Amino acid sequence: MRGFVDDRRVVLSISGADARPLLQDLVTCNLNQLAEDTLVYGALLTPQGKYLFDFFMGLEGDDLMVDIAADRAPAFAQRLMMYRLRRDMNIEATDRPITLIWDTDTAPVSARRDPRDETLGWRAYAPLDGYKAADPRDYDRKRIAAGVPATGVELVENDTYILEAGFERLSGVDFRKGCYVGQEVTARMKHKTALKKGLVRVRVEGDAEPGTAIERDGKPAGTLFTVVDGQGLAHLRFDRADGEMQAGGARVWRAD
């Protein structure tokens, strides 16, 4: 069993009689699917369907627990309060640790399975020991292999469309739950158009920083993001993603 405490993320507690129905009307995931000791993954979008926040949500008694990037938590809470109006909902920050655990088939204490991909293991929300400490880059390797985007890296505020980032494959959007913020645009992308761009795994030779533009034969082809040991994630135009591409001084090939 391997893992690390992810101090890049925090846990928010959301309480109040109106909290769950209000959030059900705002976020892309279906909170009615929640059960004890499970998580759902989802996002809050702009009305125009662009990404603002992604998070995990779970039940703790009558309250909701939200696992979110620490640097996005204040803005997320502020956004929810904008939608709250006079409804009964309160948001509190907690100091609970978030430990990412993998290489075990048995749930660690206070851990819940990552709903995006089973290879990403478990997320524990209480102090935990008995695991071999891993480097966050080890987790990035698993994330790349599973094609899973990260907050603030592959997921860009006010820019990313979640279907292009793989949210349907990652159980991050429910098309049967009814309305949510940005639902009209997201549903239209799902049912009326074929995606022309998206997040894909790539092979990389050479060095390039996250955010480096990718070109094919001198034409814009996409953007390179996380890279570890020559494997990476990139947002690519599918019509220009065959063969060798360039990202600064690095060479890039689509891997899937």
Alpha-beta content class: alpha+beta
Query: Cα-atom Rg, whole angstroms?
Result: 19 Å
The total of helices stands at 4
The strand count comes to 16
Shape: globular
- What's the N-to-C terminus distance? 29 Å
Average pLDDT confidence is 96
Order of helical and strand elements: EEHEEEHEEEEEHHEEEEEE
The order of strands across the largest sheet is 11-14-13-12-15-16
Beta content comes to 25-35%
Task: Annotate the secondary structure layout.
Elements: E1 2-5, E2 9-15, H1 19-24, E3 40-45, E4 51-60, E5 63-69, H2 73-84, E6 90-93, E7 99-102, E8 111-113, E9 122-124, E10 132-133, H3 136-146, H4 183-191, E11 197-205, E12 213-216, E13 219-228, E14 231-237, E15 245-247, E16 250-254
Parallel strand pairs: 1-10
Antiparallel strand pairs: 1-7, 2-5, 2-6, 3-4, 4-5, 7-9, 8-9, 11-14, 11-16, 12-13, 12-15, 13-14, 15-16
